[in-house]
Amino acid sequence: MALMVRSIRSSKVRRVRSPRLRREEGLWSGGALLAAVFFLAIITLAWFTQSAEADEIEPDSAYDPELESEPEPAPDPPAPAAVAQEPPEPSWIPSIDVGLETFDYNLESTVVNQINSPSWDGSQSEAARQTMFRFGGELMGPMFENLPGRPRLFAMGGLQVRLFSSDKLFGAGDPSVQLQPERGLIQHNNNGLSTKDLPGDFEGQGSALTGRFQDPSWYAGLGVAFSVPIGINRLLYIKPSVQYSMEKIDLSGELTTVDEPIPMVDPFPCGVRAAEPPCIREFFIHRSSAAASTTDHSVGMGLEVAVVPFRKVRPIRVSVYAQARFMWLVSASTTRFADSDGVATYSITRDGFGIKGGGGLRFSWVGFD
Question: To 5 degrees, how large is the angle CA 277–CA 283–CA 288?
């Protein structure tokens, strides 16, 4: 009984943990606390690290004298050699140019036969094509850099020599046949009368009027040159101007005609009726030769476009130009002349307006760099 009672009593006694168990439980509790502190430290360090990185990316706008530093110096500008610049232009630019110019000499020519008109006379309109070689000079003044197009005033002038021209202004028949109509007239007289011999049957009759430009003619002009850079190495010039030109033309006329002062008016030709005496027919040759000269003075407007393909080449710059001139005649437009024997009269009437065009090369002195 005593043992059973003890057992029952012992079952009601509270269980007491041993010191070793309490020590192990304290270790587990301290480890958990240490782990919590460790993880908290890691989280805190991570937070400060992120804050420091954010401050580096976006610095605080608050002014801190201790953190103030000198501003970074600005980058050095590029060297002058690396900057694209236009080459300098001289103030005065003298030039010489060579080229060709062509135009049509439009006129109306008239020949009047004073002996037996209307044979070998009349009027014709002609556009005589002329081609001239030009040799001239030009001087451009200082540039007005503050004005649009950076204009320069220029003066120019030169000479023209005829290379090719259409000299014939009027033509009828063929008065240049040699020994005619004299040979035909001799043959007619030697062979006697013929029913087919009439004044117009003899060869070598006709008329002609020619004009030939004297060498040299000359021209002059004043204008403004506008420059337009095309990149660094090219330059375009647009050059309107006022133009003057003077041209001398030698004129010559000739006419050859055969005349029968007393023409055969019998309805039956000579020699047809044998019972009648032979009739007598007389033919006469008339020749005209006359010459004159005229001087044409013209004024107008010119327009030139020139390109400098290699602007940096020194000291001589080459440019290619094309130009047109619109000219009005200011001198007398009609010239009349005649031979001293009164055989024929001649006249030419020139158009009051003409267009001339051409082009060439210009060599300009721009000096050394």
Answer: 170
Per-residue confidence band for 177, with pLDDT thresholds at 50, 70 and 90: confident
Q: Is residue 42 part of a domain?
A: no
Q: State how many domains the chain has.
A: 1
The candidate with the shortest Cα–Cα distance to 122, out of 338, 302, 347, 316, is 347
Whether this prediction's pTM lies above 0.70 is answered by no
Q: What is the pLDDT of residues 69-122, one digit of tens each?
A: 555 665 665 555 444 566 678 899 999 999 999 998 889 999 999 998 888 999
Q: Is residue 85 part of a domain?
A: no
Cα separation values, 357 from 159, 190, 303, Å: 15, 58, 10
Closest CA to 356 of 299, 285, 312: 299
CB-based contacts of 255: which residues, under 8 Å, 6+ apart? Answer: 111, 113, 120, 121, 175, 206, 207, 208, 286, 287, 288, 343, 344
Domain that holds residue 143: 92-265+280-365
Pair 189, 228: CB distance under 8 Å: no
